[in-house]
Amino acid sequence: MSKAEKTKEFIIEQSAPLFNCKGYAGTSLTDLIKATGLTKGAIYGNFENKDEVALAVYKHNIEFINQKLDASIAGKDSATEQLVAFTQFYRLNWKKLFEKGGCPVLNAAIEADDNLPFLKPAVQESIKKWAKKIRTILDAGKQRGEFKEHINTEEYAYAFIVLIEGGIMLSKILNNPQFLFSSLDRILSITNTELKNN
Description:
It is built from nine helices and no strands. The chain is mainly α. Helix 1 (3-26) crosses helix 4 (50-73), helix 7 (120-143) crosses helix 8 (153-173) and helix 8 packs antiparallel against helix 9. The protein is elongated and about 65 Å long.
């Protein structure tokens, strides 16, 4: 990695918590300078503008969570075990996630929907990839006869995302992780009662 690439990565890593906690509008150039210890010229020598920093930071935050999710699922033999591991990731890491501002997908989606058109495509892409990850698990379960043949895996994948994001949103705003835990329990209940072959 070149010196310029290292500097760029440093800016992204130091800025990541800022954008996720304060949002795009709430994060100023002064915040970036304080977080990185770099000058305005050094920051904008590596990024064209704040939009480019925000986009790079969003992708960084999503990649970090995806790696952690993949690691939690790795080595699980059945689709059910993978879904349990999926929910366990959020059950075990909710506090760290909340301390860093919550889910970057949820935060960016709310901000990007009407006000940040440059960020919206990246958020849409990450949600679709997330749904594909879940759908892959469900499809594998169908192929092995673990799950019912007729289930619509895409529909369930997005329903699980809705439950997770809704649980995170309520838990964070009401300072009570039980809402997230209830959502995760609901995913497991759906898995056992609606998806699995008896």
